[in-house]
Each structure stands twice: as C-alpha cells, then as structure tokens.
Amino acid sequence: MATPEPSALASDDPRLKIVERTIKKFSHQPDALIEVLHTAQEAYGFLSEALLAYVAEQLKLPESHVLGVATFYHFFSLKPKGERSCIVCTGTACYVKGAGEIVSAIEEQYQVAPGQTSADGKLSLGTARCLGNCSMAPMLTLDDAVIGRESAAHVLERIDARLSEANSSAVNEVHT
Ligand code: FES
Known about the structure:
single chain; five-stranded mixed β-sheet; 51% helix
C-alpha cells in the first residue's frame, strides 16, 4: 500500500509529528492501534480518511481493520464535530506560557468546554498534551493553521476571523 500523499496530511503539520512520535514510541506495532488512534484524534480533533489510511500504512494493518476499530469505539469521531476545530496545547511549556488562560478565554467567549462543540455547532475545542513545537509556546491549531506565541486576546481575534470566514462563505453559497 502506498503512503498517503503528504499533502493530504501536510507532512510539516505539527499534529502529524505527534502521531508519528506515538507510532515510533510503539515501534510501529499493530497492537498499538488504539493508542495511536487516540493520539491522532487528540491532535486533529477527528479521524479523517487520510489519517486512518496513514495509520494503517504505518502500523502495517489493512485500512478496513483500522476503519472498523475507529467506527466501533464511540469515543472516536470520523468527522469534525464543529465547523471549526481549535486544539490548544496544554503541555508543560505551553501551560507556563499561558495556555490555561487561552483555554479559559475560548471557553468563556464561545461557551464551549474542552472536548466539546459549541451549541451552534461552529467551534470544537480540544486540548493536547504536547503538539511538538514547544518553542512556539503557547501553541494551538485552528483547523490546519498553527498559531504560536500569541496572547489569549489575539487568539480570540483569530478564531473570530475564522468563524466569520465560514459565515461569509455560507452566505455566498446561499446567493450563488
Ligand atoms: S508543550 Fe506545547 S508544543 Fe510542547
């Protein structure tokens, strides 16, 4: 089986590095599948087709088996829960640089707790242990964008901008 196109998962994406690290930690052993899927979901917020294919290839498992496991356990999600997904790193380096304040600010502003999606379905919030780029602390991902070294106030501005992008494209779709 060919390795999935790096572009499908963006090979320089720090989230992929986290998944890679876990795979290496378990020496690519197929029986580490659940642990690897947990890490992948924690990093990305959900398990995309490309991510499942990547995990299957790395653990030398059939894609159908990996998909079967991912669909069997209710704690895995194959679709993004909110229109936008924000994962805040709460690893030690990020925490000391204010990750806790960022999480609290997002919780308060969008009324969403970590691990949940806002009532309007617009934003999912997650936390991760270490996104593998501690020099950018406090670090977070907003969909596929990586944001680092920003204050809670700036992070909220970025999220607002993303959410209004989503709103305006929805309006455009209605008018086209
Ligand atoms: S602790 Fe946040 S990137 Fe490492």
